[in-house]
Write a structure and sequence with these properties.
CATH topology of the largest domain: Jelly Rolls
CATH superfamily of the largest domain: SPRY domain
Structural class: alpha+beta
Low-confidence stretches: 15-19, 284-314, 327-348
Distance between the termini: 35 Å
Number of strands: 15
Order of helices and strands: HHEEEEEEEEEEEEEEEHHHHHH
Number of domains: 2
Number of helices: 8
Radius of gyration: 24 Å
Strand content: 15-25%
Largest sheet: 8 strands, antiparallel
């Protein structure tokens, strides 16, 4: 089904480049040359609609923070008060112990200073220390990426540069937005910058232990925003979700702002309504995790019988024609109404 639908999409969009399953990256990004292939599970999760802003996983913890951090009323933005000779940390309100999870951290480079670290931690990570240090990554309970030097930290020791390159290279300037990618089942942590997946930064994170997004800072007045984007169980992505991802890449989705452009190009394909809803993540499509729609059998049935419809234009085979039309109506109106319409057309 997936392969055939992708072929149909390519025919409907002649002239487009071969679609990539990875989210589009900025061609001007200095991270593009060091990016690695994005895992399909992550690509599907990033393509799916993000979690609503009110998701509790988008909030910093009001209890687990340094006293030098205060929170915005909704809990999504942490503000560090000026404090000399102090490194302060804060972690998310909700930890994850299984599945793939992606958080977006927004932190203006002008408000970072030295020792600006993003990563994950357990509940036992300290959230304040004297002096200036990489607090997230400063013990065995946390793993951090220091944005200024591009260095990785764990157990109070540097463990190399990230993304991987020669030690003498100039640090890459990390932009305001960084995606934290935690695979709690595999025990790995990675990051996405400018749409580029930079590979696995850490392996061997503890299994079955809640892991929280965490940051630490030494800069007074900095504002750090957190948003939970999406998550997925460990199971491989379904064929339907991969097909949808391929089609959406083929029509050129580059950001949430381009969703209307995707809708217009999908409309040009003249697909059955069920497939159109599938490709556009319509509210009528209920998902199990990232990109795993329920009611797949209906979509498969519409697709399979749409092929029958194209082969049944012969007037001598009206029973096949009626069968295909009934399935198409189910995609438009639902089973009950489609059955009534089909019966009225069948005649004696």
């Amino acid at each position: 089904m997936g392969l055939a639908l992708c072929v149909c999409a390519r025919r409907a969009l002649r002239g487009a480049n071969t679609p990539s399953l990875a989210p589009p990256a900025s061609l001007a990004s200095p991270f593009l040359p060091v990016a690695v292939t994005m895992p399909l599970l992550l690509a599907v999760a990033l393509d799916a609609p993000p979690a609503p802003p009110g998701d509790p996983r988008s909030c910093w913890s009001s209890a687990h923070r340094s006293p030098n951090f205060s929170l915005s009323p909704e809990g999504r933005v942490a503000l560090r008060a000026p404090a000399e000779q102090s490194t302060d940390g804060i972690r998310g309100a909700v930890g994850e112990r299984g599945g793939l999870h992606v958080w977006q951290v927004d932190w203006d480079p002008a408000e970072r200073g030295s020792h600006a670290v993003i990563g994950v931690s357990t509940r036992r990570c300290p959230l304040r220390t004297s002096g200036y240090a990489a607090l997230v990554g400063g013990d065995a309970e946390s793993w951090g990426w220091e944005l200024g030097s591009n260095g990785l930290w764990h157990d109070d020791a540097p463990v190399g540069l990230y993304p991987r390159r020669r030690s003498g290279d100039v640090p890459l300037r990390v932009p305001s937005t960084v995606l934290v990618v935690l695979d709690a089942d595999a025990g790995t942590l990675g990051f996405v910058v400018d749409g580029c997946f930079l590979g696995t930064a850490f392996w061997g994170l503890p299994h079955g232990t809640p892991l929280f997004p965490a940051v630490s800072s030494v800069r007074g007045g900095c504002r750090i925003a957190l948003r939970y984007l999406n998550g997925s169980p460990r199971e491989p992505p379904s064929l339907v979700s991969l097909c949808r991802l391929c089609v959406r890449r083929a029509v050129g989705r580059a950001s949430e702002a381009a969703e209307d452009h995707v809708a217009r190009r999908v409309d040009r394909m003249e697909l059955p309504p069920a497939l159109r809803r599938l490709f556009l993540y319509s509210p009528h499509t209920v998902a199990d995790g990232a990109g795993a729609p329920r009611g797949t059998s209906t979509v498969q049935s519409v697709y399979r019988n749409a092929r029958v419809l194209t082969r049944t234009s012969d007037p001598s085979r009206p029973h096949l024609r009626r069968r295909a039309e009934a399935v198409h109506l189910r995609g438009c109106h639902g089973d009950a109404e489609a059955t009534a319409v089909s019966d009225s057309r069948s005649g004696p």
